[in-house]
Here is the input.
Amino acid sequence: MAKKFPILPAHPERICWGCDKYCPADAMLCGNGSVATPHPSELFGEDWMSWGLDARDADPPATPD
Here is the structure.
């Protein structure tokens, strides 16, 4: 069973988010490269879950003016 993905982790910079092992950024075990994969909140901000492909479904339909 896959681990639940944390939406807003306390210190995302300490973990590599490239696979479901969630290794420390300075001791990656999976060989996912030499740089830790950042969490989406580090790339897109804390509101990263409120926009994107799935967010369009949550918006109310537009009304014609």
Observations:
- The longest helix spans residues 40-44.
- Residues 15 and 49 are 19 Å apart (CA to CA).
- Helices lie at 40-44, 55-58.
